[in-house]
Amino acid sequence: MILKVKNARLQSGDDLATLWVEDGVFIDTPPPEQLTKDGHESYDAGGRLLLPGFVDGHAHIDKSLWGMDWYENDVPRNLEAIVENERRFRRENSFDSHQQSQRISEQALRQGTTHIRTHIDVDTEIGIAHVEGVLATKEALKDKIDIELVCFPQSGMIVRPGTYDVMDAGMKAGCDLVGGIDPSTFERDPVEHLDQVFKLAEKYGKGVDLHLHEPGELGAFSVELMIERTKALSMQGNVTISHAFCLGEVSQEHQEKLAADLGENSISIATTAPANRTVPPFDLLRKHGVEITAGNDGIRDTWSPYGTGDMLQRAMFMGLKYRWRKDVELQKALYAITQGGANVMQLKDYGLETGCKADFVLLNSRNHAEAIVAGPVDRTVFKRGECVVEDGVLI
Amino acid sequence: MILKVKNARLQSGDDLATLWVEDGVFIDTPPPEQLTKDGHESYDAGGRLLLPGFVDGHAHIDKSLWGMDWYENDVPRNLEAIVENERRFRRENSFDSHQQSQRISEQALRQGTTHIRTHIDVDTEIGIAHVEGVLATKEALKDKIDIELVCFPQSGMIVRPGTYDVMDAGMKAGCDLVGGIDPSTFERDPVEHLDQVFKLAEKYGKGVDLHLHEPGELGAFSVELMIERTKALSMQGNVTISHAFCLGEVSQEHQEKLAADLGENSISIATTAPANRTVPPFDLLRKHGVEITAGNDGIRDTWSPYGTGDMLQRAMFMGLKYRWRKDVELQKALYAITQGGANVMQLKDYGLETGCKADFVLLNSRNHAEAIVAGPVDRTVFKRGECVVEDGVLI
């Protein structure tokens, strides 16, 4: 059946557009005779703004406490303590990573997210239970939201012997990328950590997405080691560095060099645009062709109470952090939560063009900038041409 | 008539409270015989969280474009250009500061704000038209929201001769405080600017609230000049410095000295907790007894498209900027948008205690932290014991 989506606003102004969908894919306007013969359904967007489905390029859906009892956060401010606290929480509480990842994914979907790349904890205590939980969620929601899994050694590999084998099992179970974490500050051995990460990636023919919170020159050193390995293994296009605060902290000259090398090796960046940390230099990176995705990171978990699963809120955070106030500047934030994320995730057929999968969101906003700053409610979401959320309610 | 507000959640946990209001003021539980004799109305809070009405301690309600056609922002990034652009916008467009200040005030009220301190542009082009507009709004909303006016030389006094007289007229018309703006970077003569500001304050027996965006040591110099004048004129308790990024930018030793001097002279700070600038050192300032208020600043104006009028969103921005993740840390953000703001504005009888004016908000949140991070919708607001907003709708 062909679906006609009429009165959709694609940009500011009075012009409304009609889009056509067949078999979950945008098509050119069908010839009248085909419509007469086959018939079609019609959906009236009523002048609402239509955007491609949002991409959350850095999530932790396996650890969200969304929908559970309130977690009173009293966790000291350092990575080791936070990670240890989380493991203890899991030991002492019943935690269902399938249920929780499904809850937060549906919450994200209600707000227009149609694609998620999520990092999933594996360690020597929980093994790959969370990978299995998220795989179950991925299957349960396969017609509503696309989920990509990063096998993530949250508690370390080098500092926690035995984790490499769990990582291996996680990749075997179906993860799409190999994760990693602060090779120097957390793992204390950057070369060994990165060698293990890239070894797994090579073994499974998968990409890498590594958490890098390391500051300044130390972080930049890790970036350089990742560039070396990306080159050596010809993994261009398959490596992402998440957070990468350091890219904005080193000297301007060093920033230029790193941006050029990242661009040359098609290494992408995921940012949450944190208010309290330096952010990667967006314009410089884009100038060198580096793809940038935005992510909501952990939402309502033992790490942090913040977040609602809304990528438009994340775009607002980007705008506030990068001081984007012009309408044209806000397009950069929109890019990060849509096409930029799609490019990082190498999504095929993403967008609103003919041939793209019909994943889109309808918003009560006059234009792109307003969608970002106003946080419109009651969104409607289509996944592959099917309405999966109507006015904020999951169908 | 006595009002009984039952089933109100004052903190996390299962305990629900009953509050009593008479003549717009919280009272102790009345004796049964009084209730029998006089009768009472009853309002069921239904377990919703009850907070005192929010205080927006730094607003620009006279310049908001809320409810107007979308303003496409293409303004260069420097203070002079932004201010000049705004004056041009006003010359070229019909702009009704009464209508606009009322619109954004009502939008704020719908989200629980019951008190606003707003800076109001005066200059040699618009004169005191905006002061008159906001005074009309203040009168129109006098039973719903309290508005305090700062006479604000947005376009400068020294660099724009004739503005002093307009400021004088604005104070005469009924402004509550004298405003000012970057004495060195914008006005180019810190001593002369501050002398004029404090002269007006002295003349009208009013306080001062000055915009200070100046960086580092230069900003700190302006702070020092303000401290000197506060001392000399015995204006302790009546001076606020807005933004004051510099307080977090100078050396630790200098920060300590400034915080101590500010505390000693009861000079308060207003912050918007911007993601892209350094913020005043909250804990250090509070340690020295400095009162801190949070403000939504300009909302949806020619300066910036951001903001919705929601002080809980501002509290979230504070939490993200100051990296407050613990529940107890988030109390600081809540303080800033409630009692801290009330202290800065020297509000009499603010709060939930017996004798305080019954200004409060009801939220679908389990506790204070959740109210800040989740941005609950459909709020109900009482002003002096009267329901003025029910489930997000203005009554």
From TrEMBL, chains A, B:
Ranges for domain Amidohydrolase: 43-371
Q: Name one Pfam family in it.
A: Amidohydro_3
Q: Which UniProt keywords apply?
A: Hydrolase, Plasmid
A single MF term (Gene Ontology): hydrolase activity, acting on carbon-nitrogen (but not peptide) bonds, in cyclic amidines
Q: Which InterPro entries match?
A: Amidohydro_3 (IPR013108), Metal-dep_hydrolase_composite (IPR011059), Metal_Hydrolase (IPR032466), Metallo-hydrolase_Enzymes (IPR052349)
- This protein's source sits in the domain of life called Bacteria
- Identify the NCBIfam families for this entry: PRK05985.1
Designated name of the protein: Amidohydrolase family protein
Q: Which organism is it from?
A: Qingshengfaniella alkalisoli
What taxonomic classification does the UniProt entry list for its organism? Bacteria, Pseudomonadati, Pseudomonadota, Alphaproteobacteria, Rhodobacterales
